[in-house]
Amino acid sequence: MKIGVIGSGNIGGTVGTLWARAGHEVLFASRHPEELEQLIAQAGSKASSGMPDQAARFGEVVLISVPFKALPELGRTLSPLLHRKVVLETSNPYSQRDGAIAEEVLESGRGTGPFVAGWFSNARIVRAFNSVWYETLAKEAHRPPPKIGIPLASDDRQALDVAATLVREAGFDPVIVGGLDRAKDFDVGTPVYNTGISGPDLRRALGLSQ
After folding, report:
1. What is the pLDDT of residue 209?
2. Which DSSP string corresponds to the chain?
3. Domain boundaries 2-205, corresponding CATH code
């Protein structure tokens, strides 16, 4: 599969590298792609670099991992290129870093999912890879069961299936939580956020069937 990664920092770089090593073609994007040489070397022969619009065009699936405050503008510029594509979105709203937009989301009580869906209305959004520290992802990928649980939320069942497959191929246990309104159950500040717990423990914590 061709995967575009927009935002090749801690989460995007880590998860994208796991996918490249699993055999997917991964285009890592940055506004300064020349700075990604070390990441490309670590990810291997399936990896390449480019600009965000190139990643949006390239990917059959796209992972977006940028500061939360950048999402509205990114949605305005890239949505036409992401039409009907499965987009895994990882960003978390932090008031100190992201300002008013983070405060609006946090104070709404609705969670991140509906906001992200509104900014990327042409895409099939899946909230994913937002709740586990990148160093845990790097260290614990492909460990023996029980694997680290990665909660997923989307209003598109087929997109959830694609995301779940990619979570498994990265070496983790996909935990389907529900629609995008359920992303609030694993957003920043929730009891399961940044715990690195296993899939079975995560399902129990969220009241899901095993």
Report:
1. 81
2. -EEEEE--SHHHHHHHHHHHHTT-EEEEE-SSGGGGHHHHHHH-TTEEEE-HHHHHHH-SEEEE---GGGHHHHHHHHGGGGTT-EEEE-----HHHHTHHHHHHHHHSS-HHHHHHHHTTTSEEEE-S-SS-HHHHHHHTTPSSSPBEEEEEES-HHHHHHHHHHHHHHTSEEEEEESGGGGGGSSTTSTTTT---BHHHHHHHTT---
3. 3.40.50.720
